[in-house]
Structures are given as structure tokens and as C-alpha cells.
Amino acid sequence: MLIFLYVYCSIALLVALHLGWHMIFKLDRFDWHYGKGNICGVFVFFVVLWPLMMIKPRNLINPSKLFEGNFGLAARMRERSQLRENSPPCGSVICYRQEHGPYEETYGEFLFSAAEVERALRRRLEESPHLSNDDEGAILNWLLRRDEALTYPTDMPSAWSRFQYIANDLVRAGNAKVRCLKCGTDFANEQLVANDDHGRPGWNFYRLACPNGHNLLVVEKMHLLMERSLENWGQA
């Protein structure tokens, strides 16, 4: 029994040293700021119960996946910070394709005038100044440094996920060129179909679809929590 405990504790010490080295030399300020609790919890858990690491032996070699936590929040914030410091070139035309989210797949490709996007952002920031510290402020700074001589479409960086709200407003206002990648067809703004949710329990979305029913843009609207009794009453 003593020999077993000695071996178990010895391996636990080696695991602690390995994870500790990774925590010190591989995790950055974003990992610690957005996932400190998760990092400490993972360290203690796998040092005490190190045999569980045998389920996925590759985690012994590279434990990066163990420390991700928070649905990749640190990675997203790191990418946003890098975009602020080293943004890609911006031209006179912005191309936007919504990333495949956790809810519904989308097939829209949108072209916007950079000047029109700038005006929309200025209006939004006048109404909600606190957004200057969020994606809206970063996107506006990027647009202000644009080169109007670049006439080919410039991709909107996917890390600025809040651009979906700007895109939704601009498309509904008729200020976009729209293409359905599923159909391979361009559509006029007035041909798009709005399939918005209205007060249903759970997540509600703004949806824009092409005439053939393919979702082009899906934007979170609100989340409604309803008691089960009220929900059943509404369905009666």
C-alpha cells in the first residue's frame, strides 16, 4: 500500500511540475485575466486525479486544451487586442460573412460602403458612448485609417463579432449588396425575407433570408425566461 501511495504521489508531483511549467511559460495575460479560476481548478483537479489524463494521453504532452475554459473567451479577447494593435488594411468596400454560430447556419455575403458603415457606427456611438470600448469603437478606428484607393472588398475581421448588429441595420435599411452563397445568386435588399422571432421563450433572433429560404444573417435579439406554467398556458 505504501509503495502504491509513493508511486501515485511521485507521478502526481511530475504532473504538477509539467502543468506548472505550462502555466508559467505558455499562458499569457489574457488566459490569466479571463480564466484564472479555471486554470487553478484544472491544475488541482488533474494533479490529484492524474490517471484521468490517460483518457486523452495527448493532454500529457500538450495540456493547452485543458486550460482553454470560458468557451475560448481568452483567445477571442487576445485576437481583438491584436487587431487593435495591428489591423489589416481597410479599403472603401467592406465584405462581411457571418461566422457559423452555435444556433443556425448562414449563407449571406454582404458588401458595404466603408463610408456608410462609418456613419452607422458614429450614430450608434452617439447613442451608446460606452460601446467605444467594445468592437464598435475598434471598428470605427479601423475605418478611419482606410485607404480609399483600395477598391477591392476588404474582409471584416471575424473577431469583431458585434459587427453583426451593424450589418443587420444596414441591410434592413437597404445599404448593402447581398449574395446568397447557397444559391450563388445576388439579391436586391427588397427581395430579402425577414423571419424575426417575437416573444418566444428562450433566444429570439433577427433573421434575414433569401427568397429561397436560406438564412443570410441571424442576429441575437433577446433571451426571454418564462415560467413553465405561463409557457404551457400560452400554448393552450
Ends distance: 64 Å
H/E order of the elements? Answer: HHHHEEHHEHEEEEEH
Runs in which pLDDT lies below 50 for 5 or more consecutive residues are none
Adjacency order of strands in the biggest sheet: 3-1-2-4-5
Specify the helix fraction band. Answer: 40-55%
Mean pLDDT over the residues: 86
**How many structural domains?**
2
Q: Let me know the number of strands.
A: 8
Derived from helix and strand composition plus strand pairing, the structural class reads: alpha+beta
Radius of gyration: 24 Å
Proportion in β-strands: 15-25%
Q: Determine the oligomeric state from the structure.
A: single chain
How many H/I helices?
8
Overall body shape:
elongated
Described by strand count, sense and barrel closure, the largest sheet is: 5 strands, mixed
Describe the structure.
The chain is α+β, with helices and mostly antiparallel strands. It has two domains: about 1-75, no CATH class; about 85-225, no CATH class. It is about 45% helix and about 15% strand. The strands form two sheets. A five-stranded mixed beta sheet has the order 3-1-2-4-5. Strands 6-7-8 form a three-stranded antiparallel beta sheet. A hairpin with a 5-residue loop joins β7 (about 200-210) and β8 (about 215-225). The termini are far apart. The mean pLDDT is about 85.
Structure at a glance:
The protein has 8 helices and 8 strands; from the N terminus they run H-H-H-H-E-E-H-H-E-H-E-E-E-E-E-H.
